[in-house]
Amino acid sequence: MANESGTVGWFRLFQLGQHYMKTWPMEKRLAPVFAENRVIRATRFGIRVMPPLAVFTLCWQIALGGQPGPVVATALFACSLPLQGLWWLGKRSVTPLPPTLLNWFHTVREKLQQAGQAVAPVEGKPDYQALAEVLKRAFSQPDNTFLDDI
Q: What pTM was estimated for this model as a whole?
C-alpha cells in the first residue's frame, strides 16, 4: 500500500478513495461527526455530472467561437472536481485515527464481538478505512441499537 517512505502514490490514492467511498456507511447518525457523508455525496454527484458538463461547455464555447484556452481550462477544472473528492477520500482512508476516535473504534469492535460477530484482529494502528469497515459491519446488523449508547 505505502512505499518505503510511508507515502502512497496519487493513482493509488484514487483507488483507495473509491474503495473508501464504497465502504463508508452513509448513515444520518454519522453525518454531524464525519465529513465523509458530504464529501462522498459531492464526489458521486461530480462523477455523474461533471464529465457531461465539461463536454457541453467545450462544445458550446467552440460553437460560439470562444477562445480555446479558457474553454479547455474550464473543462479540465470541471473534470478535476470529482478527482479532488477521490483524492481527499484516499488520503483520509490511510490517515491513522486520532485518540478520541481510536477509543470509539475499539468500543464499537467490542460491542460487535459481544453481539456474536467475528471481528478480524487489528493490524497496526487503525486508520479511517478500518473504522469504515467496522461501522459498515455494525450498521448492517439487524439489531444495531447498541450504537445508540456509544
A: 0.85
